[in-house]
Amino acid sequence: MNKYSYTEGKFVIYIEVEPTTPTPHEPKYDDAYDVTLLANVKGGLRKFEITVDAKGDAMSRTTGKNSDLFHVSRDAIRNLVKKESRNKRAAALQTKIAHLEYRLGKPTASKVKKVAVKTLTAGKFELGRVVQTRGVNHKSRENPQFKRDVDNAFRKYMRGDWGISKDKRMNNQAVKNGDDRIMGVYPTSEGDIWIITEWDRSVTTMLFPSEY
């Protein structure tokens, strides 16, 4: 859960954001967040609760008593949702890799190889943390030609060359708008690899399609 407080006029607004628990009957809440706003003002405590999507936009009614707390807190809510979403996606990636290694009988101590710790920026978009899955990392150490293929693919990716991806138009639009996932597909000596930058630009992953 991410918490935040800030001063709006003469009172302080407290904000809490946490992922919504999805249900089979409400699949739209798979990537949604519950927001609670509290303001201690003259006359008592004011409270407003609402569900927002991954961009911080309301998914339910924004009118009624105390709804003004939501409207004046939009920017703060968007920032908190972005942080919470980044944490959620990073945890999901770690879980997915751990499950893969378990099926392969591999130890989970080394889930991904960190290629860069700080945020990187390609020519037109942010890459975030750049990581490789265990499969790509292992093959890179084992096969020098494959390592060169991966390096070449990554250089193309940073230039906005999406390889043999069928989603080139969507990728270009995502780079322009900065609000969607980017994905490149590249042939190598060990088969195709994918390079994916998450929609919030928090992480870029190099992986085999079978590892997705």
Please characterize this protein's 3D structure.
The chain is of the alpha+beta class and 212 residues long. It has helices at residues 68-72, 74-104, 134-142, 144-159, 168-177, and strands spanning 2-8, 11-19, 33-41, 44-52, 112-121, 126-133, 182-186, 193-197, 203-207. The longest helix has 31 residues, at 74-104. The two termini are 27 Å apart.
Secondary-structure topology with pairs:
Elements: E1 2-8, E2 11-19, E3 33-41, E4 44-52, H1 68-72, H2 74-104, E5 112-121, E6 126-133, H3 134-142, H4 144-159, H5 168-177, E7 182-186, E8 193-197, E9 203-207
Parallel strand pairs: 6-9
Antiparallel strand pairs: 1-2, 2-3, 3-4, 5-6, 7-8, 8-9
Strand content: 25-35%
What separation lies between the terminal Cα atoms?
27 Å
Number of helices: 5
Quaternary structure = single chain
Low-confidence stretches: 106-121
Radius of gyration: 21 Å
Task: Please identify the structural class as seen in this structure.
Answer: alpha+beta
Number of domains: 2
Strand order of the largest sheet: 5-6-9-8-7
Biggest β-sheet, characterized? Answer: 5 strands, mixed
Give a count of the beta strands, DSSP E runs of length 2 or more: 9
The SSE order reads: EEEEHHEEHHHEEE
Average residue-wise pLDDT: 76
Q: What share of residues is helical?
A: 25-40%
Shape: elongated
